[in-house]
Amino acid sequence: MGQTVLLLPGDGIGIEIMAEARKVLEWVVRHDRLDLTFDQALIGGCAYDATGDPLPEETLTKAKSAAAVLLGAVGGPKWESLPYEVRPERGLLGIRKALDLYANLRPAQIFSQLLEASTLKPEVIRGIDIMVVRELSSGIYFGQPKGVETLPDGRKRGFNTLVYTTDEIERVAVSAFEIARKRQGRVCSVDKANVLEATELWRTTVTALRNARYPDVALSHMYVDNAAMQLVRNPRQFDVILTTNMFGDILSDEASMLTGSIGMLPSASLGGRYALYEPIHGSAPDIAGQGVANPLATILSVAMMLRYTLQRPAAADRIERAVNRVLDQGLRTADIMQEGKTRVGTIAMGDAVVAALAD
Ligand code: NAD
User: Fold this and answer.
1) How far apart are CA 282 and CA 45, in angstroms?
2) Which is the closest atom of ligand 1 to the Cα of 297?
3) How far apart are CA 53 and CA 50, in angstroms?
4) Could you read off the pLDDT of 198-245 as tens digits, one per residue?
5) Same domain, residue pair 271 and 301
6) How far does residue 248's CA lie from ligand 1's centre (Å)?
7) Is the pLDDT confidence value at 1 over 70?
8) ∠ CA 100-254-201 to the nearest 5 degrees?
9) 192 carries an active-site annotation
10) Are residues 236 and 124 located together in one domain of the fold?
11) In the chain, pLDDT over 70 holds for what percent of residues?
C-alpha cells in the first residue's frame, strides 16, 4: 500500500518554503517511482483563524495516518496577543506531544561554501558535523507540578519540575546510539549530574544502556556548562550529543549558529510510530510574502525524511548533493548572500535544486 506524506505549511514563510520542498519531493517521487502521495492540512495561526484551534482534530487525524509529516513554520505577530492555549506555537507543542515525538535530531553541518557566514573563525568550524539528539517530550517543559502561585504574604512563587523516568531516558538514548553507529560511533551525553538528581539518573541510565547494548559506541559525559563552552571552543570534538529537553533546546541553537545560517538547518523529530520533519527556523514574519526566504532548510528536511523514515538513503544523498551543487554555482538567498555571488529568491533557489537533482 502507498504511503502518504502530510504537508503542514503553517504561517509566514512556511507557505513559500513548503512549495519548494514539495517540488523537490515530487521530483524524487517521479524519478525513483515511489508509491507516495501528498496530503495537506492546517496548523498554527492559519488553523486558529479557520477553526479557532491551532491544532485541529482533522490535522492530527491526518498526521497519525501519514508515514511522515513535513512542517513549514508557525506563528507571527497577528497571533501574539492570543491566550497561550490557542497560540500558534501550541499547535507545534501539541502535535509533538500527540505523536509522542521524543527524539529531536538537529544536525549542525558546515557547508564549505558558507564558511564565511559563521561568526567563528573558519579554522574552528571547518568540517564540523554534529548531530544533537534532544529529548523532546519530557523533562522540565512538561514536568508536574508547574505554575505560579501567590504566597500568604503576597509574594508570588513560580515553579517547574524536572522529571525523567528510566524508560524516557532509555528510548532517546537508543536513538542516539543507533545514529552514532551510522556516523563516527561517538556519543557525548550532556547533563548536570553534579547538581540535579534527575540528570544523575540520566547519566547512570545512559551508561548502563551503553554497557549492555552498545559496547561498540564510545560514550563520554559532559556537564552542560562545559558543553556550551566546548561547542564554541572546539566543536569538531563532537559527533553525537545526547541531552535533555531544556539543555538540548539551548545547545542545539548554539550548535546551529556555528554554521552561520538559520535558513540552512533541517531537523527531525522521531517517536516510536510517527515522525515529523521541519526546518529549525520560525515563520520569519519580517520577510514573509516577499519571496526571499531560504528554502534549503526545508529541502534538507526532506532529505532527512527520506533517510530516517522512507528508507531512501540514496535519494537523501542526492538532495544533499544538489544543495551543495547550487551553492557551488554561487546561488544565494539574501540570508546567506556573499560578495560576488548571485542573489536569488525562494522560487529560483527551489528550481535550481530541482535542476541540480537531474544532473
Ligand atoms: P525566525 O526563525 O522566524 O526568524 C529569525 C530571523 O531569521 C529573522 O530575521 C528571519 O527573517 C530570519 N530567517 C528565518 N528563517 C529564514 C529563512 N528560511 N530564510 C531567510 N531568513 C530566515 O524566529 P523569530 O523571529 O524569533 O520568530 C518568528 C515567529 O516564528 C514567532 O511567532 C515564533 O514564535 C515563531 N517560531 C516558530 C518556530 C517553528 O514553527 N518551528 C520556531 C521558532 C519560532
Assistant:
1) 13
2) 18
3) 8
4) 999 999 999 999 999 999 999 999 999 999 999 999 999 999 999 999
5) yes
6) 18
7) no
8) 50
9) yes
10) yes
11) 100
Catalytic residue check, 141: yes
Give the pLDDT score at 262.
83
The CATH number covering residue 31 comes to 3.40.718.10
Q: Do residue 124 and residue 252 come from a single domain?
A: yes
Whole-number mean pLDDT of the chain? 95
Q: Are residues 276 and 295 in the same domain?
A: yes
Mean per-residue pLDDT, 277-301: 97
Ligand 1 pocket mutation, candidates 16, 87, 281, criterion most atoms within 8 A of CB? 281
CB of 281 within 8 A of CB of 304? no
Residues 72 and 124 both lie in one domain: no
User: Who's near 240: CB < 8 A, 6+ residues apart?
Assistant: 130, 131, 132, 133, 176, 179, 180, 183, 186, 187, 188
pLDDT at 18 over 70: yes
Which residue of the set 141, 223, 341, 351 is catalytic? Answer: 141
User: Domain limits at 289?
Assistant: 1-112+261-359
What are the grid coordinates assigned to 174, written together?
537508543
For ligand 1, whether the C-beta of 16 sits within 6 Å is: no
Between the CA of 284 and the centroid of ligand 1 the distance, in Å, is: 4
71 and 22 both lie in a single domain: yes
Q: What is the model's pLDDT at position 118?
A: 83
Closest residue CA from atom 37 of ligand 1: 282
Give Cα separations from 163 to 135, 141, 147, 157, 198 (angstroms): 12, 9, 15, 19, 6
| Active-site pick, 192, 274, 308, 335 | 192
Residue 84 annotated as catalytic: no
Domain match, 207 and 229 both: yes
Q: Which of 213, 241, 258 is the last residue of a domain?
A: 258
Q: In this predicted structure, what is the pLDDT of residue 93?
A: 87
Is 124 found in the same domain as 249? yes
Q: Which of 301, 293, 350 is nearest to 326 (CA)?
A: 350
Q: Whose CA is nearest to atom 23 of ligand 1?
A: 282
Last residue of a domain, one of 202, 229, 258: 258
First to last CA, the chain: 31
Domain count, the chain: 2
